C-alpha cells in the first residue's frame, strides 16, 4: 500500500472486527482503515459480510468482536454523535412513503437537528444536485428505481456528512441510471467526501474505488487499489476462448496446459491468463485448437476475485 | 476534517444550552428512557406530517365518544336508573361516563401502540432510516408514544366536551380528567409498545384484544368496586384501568380523594416501567435484528 508521509487520522479503523448472529458468523475478524477523502470499497458476493460491516460502521449494529473506531469514537458509546456525521444509503429502499419528495429531505434534516429554514434550503439544493427539482412535491412511491436511489443519496447528504456509506448503491438499476449515479458519486468525491461502498459489481468498484478490500465468507481476502490488486494477482491480459461444446472445451484445456500463467475453465469458455494475450492467440492457432470465438482483454477485478476465492472455478 | 458540530446543528447529547422548557423536557425524556437523545419530537412531527393525508383515524377517534355515551350511558342507563357509590346516589349515565372516558383512553392507546406500530416495526423500512440518523431506537419509541398521546389527548378533550354538553359533568375538577386520561394513555401506550415488540404475526394481536376486553369488563367500569367481595376487589385493583376509571370518576364527579394519589402513582409506575422495557426492546429489535429478517439469518 502506498502510504504517504504524514497521513491523517483514519476515518474508520477496525481491528479483528466481528459480527455473529447466534451461530452464524457474518463477519469473521477483519482489519481495515479508511482515510479521509478516499473512496473505499467492500467487494464481494452476497453473504460475504459487506452489509453487516456497513451496519457496524453505521452504528446501527453492535459488534460482537474486535475493535471499531469511527472518527476516533467508539460506536457502542457515541453512536448518536457518530451518526450525526454520517450519510447512509442503505441497500433497501427506506424512503418515507408518507411524505413527498421534498419533505423526505426536510424531515430527515430535522432528525439531525438542522433548523427548518436551513433544511428547506438544503433540500432544494440537493434536489437540483440529483436532478429531481421538478418532482419536489410528488409522492415518493411512483418514482422510478433510479430516482428513488438518487433521492436516497440526496437524503444521505442532507447533514453534509464527513463519511458517506453506500450499500450496493446501484443494485437493480438499469445501465443509464447506474451511470448517472456514478457520475453524481464521482462529483461528491471531487468535493472531498469520504465514500465507503459495498458492491458485487466489479466494474463499479473499478470506477469508484481508490482502494478496496475483497471479502468472502466474512473475511478479507486481500486489499489494495484496483490496479494493485490486478497486478498482484493477474498478468496483464486475459484471453477468452469460447466453445459451444463442453467436450471440446475440456480437450482444449488439456492441449493448452502450460500456455500463459494459468488457465481457468468456465462452463462456456477458457480463460487464459498471460502477459501477452496476442501471443497466446497465435499459440492457440499453432496447436490446432479452434474456439468459436476468441477475445483478448485486460485483467479486471473480476479475474482477481475468481483467482482469490476460487469460487465456481476448477483450477487448471 | 471540518467542524461538524456547527454543520449538523447540535451533536447528540453534546453542546448543551441553557435548559429551556425544551431542554428540561429532553432531560425528563432521557431520565424516563435510557438511550433517548431528546430528538423524539422530530419523530412525532414526522408522523403528524404523514398523517395529513389520512383523516380517517382522526374522524373515528372524535366520533367514538358519542357511541360510548349513547350505547352504554344512555341506553343501559335508562334501564339501571340510579347507582349508589361511596354513599352518594348518582344517575347511572353520570356514574359510568367517566369510566368510558378512561376506557376510551386505554383502547385508543393500545390500538395506536400495537396495531399501528407492528407493521412499522416488522415490514416498513422506515425505522431503519430513522436510526441511521442521530435518533436512537428509544427516540423512535418515545416519538411514537408522544404522537399517539397527542391524538389521545385531543380525543379525551372532545370526549369531555361531549359529556359536558350532555350534562354529565357536575364539577370543575373535571378539567383535570384530560391530563388524567393522557396519563392513562401514556401508561397503556408504553405497555403496548413493549408488547408489540414480541408480536410475531397479526394473530398475536388477539391476545391484546383479549386482555383489553377483560380489563374493560372487570375494572369496576360499569359498577362501583364495592359490588365485588373483598378478595375480588383486590384483584380488580391490579387492573390499570381500574385506577384510571377511579381517578377520572373522582375528578369528574368532583370528589377528589387521597386515594387518587395512589391511582396516579400506579399509572406513573406502569408508564415508566413500560417505557424502559419498550426502549430496551426497540433497541434490541432495530439494532440487532435490523428491523427485519434480512440482516439476521436466524
What is this structure, in a nutshell?
By secondary structure, chain A is an alpha/beta fold. Chain A has helices spanning 50-57, 75-83, 101-111, 116-129, 145-156, 175-190, 202-208, 226-233, 246-256, 277-287, 301-309; strands at 12-21, 24-34, 39-43, 65-70, 86-89, 163-167, 194-199, 211-216, 219-224, 237-242, 262-265, 269-274, 293-298.
Please characterize this protein's 3D structure.
- By secondary structure, chain A is α/β, with parallel strands linked by helices.
- Chain A folds into two domains: 12-225, P-loop containing nucleotide triphosphate hydrolases (Rossmann fold), CATH 3.40.50; 235-298, Alpha-Beta Plaits (2-Layer Sandwich).
- Chain A is built from eleven helices and 13 strands.
- Chain A has helices at residues 50-57, 75-83, 101-111, 116-129, 145-156, 175-190, 202-208, 226-233, 246-256, 277-287, 301-309, and strands spanning 12-21, 24-34, 39-43, 65-70, 86-89, 163-167, 194-199, 211-216, 219-224, 237-242, 262-265, 269-274, 293-298.
- In chain A, the strands form three sheets. Chain A has a six-stranded mixed sheet, sandwiched between helices.
- In chain A, α3 crosses α4.
- The longest helix of chain A is centred in the middle third of the chain and has 16 residues, at 175-190.
- Chain B has 298 residues and is an all-alpha fold.
- Chain B has one domain (43-288).
- Chain B contains 13 helices and two strands.
- Chain B has helices spanning 4-7, 21-32, 40-51, 56-80, 92-113, 115-122, 126-131, 137-165, 177-196, 205-218, 230-236, 240-252, 259-288; strands spanning 82-85, 88-91.
- Chain B has a two-stranded antiparallel ribbon.
- The relative contact order of chain B is 0.14.
- Mean pLDDT of chain B is 83; it is low at 1-17 and 290-298.
- Chain A binds chain B through residues 8, 21-22, 24, 26, 36, 51-52, 55, 58, 60-62, 71, 79-81, 83-86, 88, 90, 92-96, 98-99, 103, 107-108, 110-115, 155, 159-160, 162, and chain B through 1-2, 4, 7-14, 37, 39, 42, 45-46, 49-51, 53, 125-126, 128-136, 286-288, 290, 294-298.
Amino acid at each position: 500500500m502506498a502510504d504517504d508521509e504524514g497521513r491523517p487520522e483514519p476515518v474508520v479503523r477496525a481491528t479483528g472486527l466481528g459480527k455473529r448472529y447466534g451461530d452464524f458468523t457474518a463477519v469473521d475478524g477483519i482489519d481495515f482503515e479508511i482515510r479521509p477523502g478516499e473512496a473505499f470499497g467492500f467487494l464481494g458476493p452476497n453473504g460475504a459480510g459487506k452489509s453487516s460491516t456497513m451496519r457496524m460502521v453505521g452504528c446501527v449494529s453492535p459488534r460482537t468482536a474486535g475493535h471499531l473506531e469511527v472518527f476516533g469514537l467508539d460506536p457502542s458509546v457515541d453512536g448518536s454523535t457518530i451518526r450525526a456525521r454520517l450519510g447512509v444509503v442503505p441497500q433497501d429502499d427506506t424512503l418515507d412513503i408518507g411524505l413527498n419528495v421534498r419533505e423526505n429531505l426536510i424531515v430527515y434534516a430535522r432528525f439531525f437537528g438542522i433548523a427548518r429554514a436551513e433544511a428547506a434550503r438544503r433540500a432544494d439544493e440537493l434536489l437540483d444536485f440529483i436532478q429531481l427539482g421538478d418532482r419536489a412535491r410528488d409522492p415518493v412511491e411512483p418514482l422510478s428505481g433510479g430516482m428513488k436511489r438518487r433521492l436516497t443519496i440526496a437524503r444521505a447528504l442532507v447533514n453534509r456528512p464527513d463519511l458517506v456509506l453506500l450499500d450496493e448503491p446501484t443494485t437493480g438499476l438499469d445501465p443509464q441510471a447506474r451511470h448517472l449515479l456514478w457520475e453524481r458519486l464521482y462529483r461528491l468525491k471531487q468535493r472531498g467526501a469520504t465514500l465507503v461502498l459495498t458492491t458485487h459489481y466489479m466494474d463499479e468498484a473499478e470506477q469508484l474505488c481508490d482502494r478496496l478490500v475483497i471479502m468472502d465468507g466474512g473475511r478479507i481476502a486481500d486489499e489494495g487499489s484496483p490496479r494493485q490488486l490486478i497486478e498482484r494477482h493477474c498478468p496483464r491480459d486475459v484471453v477468452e476462448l469460447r466453445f459451444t461444446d463442453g467436450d471440446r472445451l475440456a480437450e482444449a484445456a488439456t492441449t493448452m496446459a502450460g500456455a500463459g500463467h494459468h488457465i481457468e475453465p468456465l462452463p462456456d469458455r477458457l480463460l487464459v491468463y498471460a502477459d501477452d494475450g496476442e501471443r497466446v492467440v497465435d499459440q492457440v492457432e499453432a496447436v490446432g485448437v479452434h474456439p468459436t470465438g476468441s477475445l483478448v482483454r485486460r485483467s479486471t477485478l473480476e479475474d482477481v476475485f475468481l483467482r482469490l476465492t476460487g469460487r465456481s472455478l476448477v483450477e487448471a | 476534517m471540518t467542524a461538524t458540530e456547527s454543520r449538523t446543528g447540535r451533536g447528540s447529547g453534546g453542546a448543551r444550552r441553557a435548559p429551556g422548557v425544551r431542554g428540561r423536557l429532553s432531560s425528563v425524556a432521557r431520565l424516563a428512557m435510557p438511550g433517548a437523545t431528546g430528538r423524539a419530537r422530530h419523530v412525532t412531527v414526522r408522523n403528524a406530517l404523514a398523517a395529513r393525508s389520512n383523516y380517517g383515524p382522526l374522524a373515528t377517534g372524535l366520533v367514538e365518544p358519542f357511541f360510548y355515551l349513547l350505547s352504554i350511558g344512555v341506553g343501559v342507563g335508562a334501564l339501571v336508573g340510579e347507582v349508589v357509590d361511596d354513599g352518594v346516589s348518582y344517575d347511572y349515565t353520570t356514574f359510568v361516563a367517566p369510566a368510558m372516558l378512561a376506557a376510551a383512553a386505554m383502547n385508543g392507546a393500545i390500538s395506536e401502540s400495537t396495531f399501528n406500530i407492528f407493521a412499522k416495526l416488522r415490514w416498513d423500512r422506515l425505522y431503519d432510516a430513522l436510526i441511521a440518523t442521530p435518533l436512537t431506537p428509544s427516540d423512535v419509541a418515545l416519538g411514537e408514544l408522544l404522537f399517539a398521546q397527542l391524538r389521545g389527548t385531543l380525543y379525551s378533550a372532545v370526549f369531555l366536551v361531549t359529556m359536558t354538553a350532555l350534562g354529565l359533568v357536575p364539577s370543575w375538577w373535571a378539567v383535570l380528567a384530560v391530563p388524567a386520561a393522557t396519563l392513562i394513555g401514556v401508561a397503556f401506550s408504553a405497555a403496548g409498545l413493549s408488547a408489540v415488540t414480541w408480536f410475531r404475526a397479526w394473530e398475536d394481536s388477539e391476545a391484546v384484544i383479549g386482555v383489553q376486553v377483560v380489563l374493560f369488563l372487570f375494572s369496576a367500569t360499569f359498577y362501583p368496586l364495592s359490588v365485588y367481595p373483598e378478595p375480588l376487589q383486590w384483584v380488580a385493583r391490579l387492573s390499570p384501568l381500574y385506577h384510571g376509571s377511579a381517578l377520572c370518576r373522582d375528578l369528574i364527579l368532583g370528589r377528589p380523594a387521597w386515594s387518587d394519589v395512589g391511582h396516579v402513582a400506579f399509572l406513573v409506575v406502569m408508564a415508566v416501567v413500560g417505557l424502559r422495557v419498550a426502549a430496551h426492546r426497540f433497541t434490541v429489535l432495530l439494532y440487532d435484528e435490523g428491523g427485519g429478517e434480512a440482516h439476521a439469518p436466524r
